[in-house]
Amino acid sequence: MENPFEIIVQRLDAIERLLIEIKTGTRIDNATTRKDNELMNVQQVADYLTLAVQTIYGYVSNMEIPNFKRGKRLYFRRTEIDDWIGQSRRKTMAEIQQEASNYVATKRNRKY
Q1: Which long-range contacts (CB under 8 A, 24 or more apart) does 105-112 make?
Q2: What is residue 66's predicted lDDT score, i.e. its pLDDT?
Q3: I need a labelling partner for 104 at 20 to 30 A (CA). Which of 28, 68, 69, 86 fits?
Q4: 41 φ, ψ (degrees, to nearest 5)
């Protein structure tokens, strides 16, 4: 018969590992991972971004949107599309004012 204290220690270790994974976000549900890594075609990307197919082809032609080409087919990874959209984020007025305040505060302390 196994020592009950060893069982408790093993279970506590498992709980601790799960808590660390939750805290650091290192483990993701398989369904979420599959959806994030999903490859989409031009039509699916156009629907996802609510743009015309021709607009997507224009972005590809200008090398503005991340894509893969296999033969004559274009593929896009959902996570890369999300990252690409996120790169064009505009700052709010509050963020701009905060940056300006930080800049003035650091420059004011400098002596020339």
Answers
A1: none
A2: 95
A3: 86
A4: -95, 180
Give the residue numbers spanning the domain of 12.
1-34
110: which 2 tokens? 């400098």
What span, in angstroms and rounded, lies between the C-alpha atoms of 87 and 59? 15
Give how far Cα 9 sits from Cα of 1, 6, 19, 23, 103, Å.
16, 5, 15, 21, 52
pLDDT digits (tens, 9 = 90+) for 53-104: 999 999 999 999 999 998 999 999 999 999 999 888 888 999 999 999 999 9
Instruction: Give CA–CA dist 59/67, Å, rounded.
Output: 10
Domain count, the chain: 2
Residues 54 and 14 in one domain: no
Helix-, strand-, coil-residue percentages of the chain, each rounded to 5: 65, 10, 30
Exposure string over 53-63, b if 16+ CB within 10 A, otherwise e: eeebeebbeee
Examine residue 67 and state whether it is found in any structural domain, yes or no: yes
